[in-house]
Amino acid sequence: VVPVAEALKISSHDELIAAVPHALGFRPVQSMVCLPIGSGPIARVDLPASDDELEPWLATLTDVYLHRHRPARIALVAFGEDGSRTVEALAALGDALSAAIDVGPILWVNGEEWTELLTATSGTLSPSAQARMDAEYAIRGRVMPVGSREELAAAMQGDSRNVAAHLPPTWNRFRGLDETALEGEVSWVGARVERFLDDRHYLSDLDAARVLVALSDTGIRDGAVLAMNRADSPVLSELWQDLTRRAPAEVRDSPATLLAVSSWLEGNGAKAWTALDQLLEPNRLSDLVSAALEQAVDPSMWDKAVPAATGALMQRAALRDGPAHNRAPTHEPGINPDLPGPATGR
Amino acid sequence: MTDTTRSEDRLAALIGTPAPAPARSTVDLFFPASQGLERLGTFADS
Predict the structure, then answer these.
(1) B17 touching A (Cβ < 8 Å)
(2) Which residue has the higher pLDDT, B42 or B3?
(3) Considering A134, A205, A216, A302, which has the largest number of Cβ atoms within 10 A of its Cβ?
């Protein structure tokens, strides 16, 4: 429970609307945004494109707020230029939720203009409210929201040529590691991640190639997953996003999967979905992240399920199970090392 | 049991027996961190 003194105080419709891009990390367009007051996840979803889409669209959101989470109160803010379609979606969602939840305010935002449907009041977004929200989030260390959801994907794509130049010798070295050396490699990857958590300096091209090749082993990749916790996840997302951005295609799925996990852990569903969209091939871990996102699983359960410290112990225990490349098929660049079928070990 | 199995089991345990979600549009869900001050704590109608 967040102490009241730490909760962000929203005192007007203007401030609520101005807070939305900060809460999402981007500026929504043609979107419904549901903001529980006090507890529960914030949701953003595209507005239904047609009447046929309305019922399944409502089912999606009532599943989240009536079945999986049950906030006491929720504000609805729809961003759209088409007044009739946007207001119809707002009214239908308000009706669907109001049987169990106190709903309001219900706001339609079109550019700088807003209309509140329950009170039939309207206004223009005030610059002072936007400035206050910008400041509130800035003093909490949050970066300014990007212009659109699409920009999240653009930030995950970059120039891979510098890292690619190091890959052939890195693959040769990795394949030549004996059991003892491979254990050392696992430890090095863990230490390199820890160092990033301390200094947040992005990896050199050589270190990036070495980490990416090591992470192509699903055992090492999943050791990195087990070491994650919610508190570290925002910084880890910086690391995995940077590696996803710089990784050649043959080794890119692993950091993208790790970015999906860390984004989900930090509570950022849009970034997690965007990371999953980067994958050339889904894998079992990415399928589980998709399921967690679709089923609105609260990531705070991750730390509760297994204390963070246990992650490191499990990682060490995993090493005692035997070296990863005794359990894994031989790696070839460009081949996803995940095996089909149930997760029964390799 | 390998570490792969453990990490997938850990996530699978959180999800539980998947109750099939309805066919849905992609919903972006945001869970504010426990110390995250973006959690909307109070609201007074203007």
Answers:
(1) no
(2) B42
(3) A216
pLDDT tens digits along A201-227 = 999 999 999 999 999 998 899 889 988
Label the pairing between strands A8-10 and B40-43.
Answer: parallel
Closest residue of B to A10, CA-based? Answer: B43
A37/B31 Cβ within 8 A: no
pTM of the predicted structure, to 2 decimals: 0.82
Structural tokens at position A198: 């301390």
Facing residues of A35 across strands?
Answer: A75
R_g of chain A computed on alpha carbons: 23
- Length of chain A measured in residues: 346
pLDDT at A328: 39
Contact B5, A345 (CB under 8 A): yes
Q: Note whether A9 and B24 are within 8 A (CB).
A: no
Structure tokens at A218: 């699903």
> How far apart, in whole angstroms, are the C-alpha atoms of residue A247 and residue A157?
9
For range B34-41, the mean pLDDT? 50
Please give the Cα distance from A127 to A133 (Å, whole number): 10
Residue type, A53: E
Count of CA atoms in the C-beta half-sphere (13 A) of A41: 32
Class of residue A87 by CB neighbours under 10 A (exposed 0-12, middle 13-18, buried 19+): middle
User: Tens of pLDDT along A101-115?
Assistant: 999 999 999 999 999
**Which residues of A, range 6-25, sit inside 8 Å of B by Cβ?**
6-14, 16, 19, 22-24
Give CA–CA dist A210/A206, Å, rounded: 6
* Per-window interface: A 302-341 vs B, CB < 8 A: 302, 305-306, 314-315, 317-318, 321, 327
When scoring A63, A121, A222, A310 by the number of chain B Cβ atoms within 10 A, the one with the most, hence best to mutate, is A222
Cis omega (within 30 of 0) for bond into A145: no
Which DSSP helix (H) or strand (E) runs through A20?
helix A13-24
Closest alpha carbon to A256 in A221, A230, A291, A229: A221
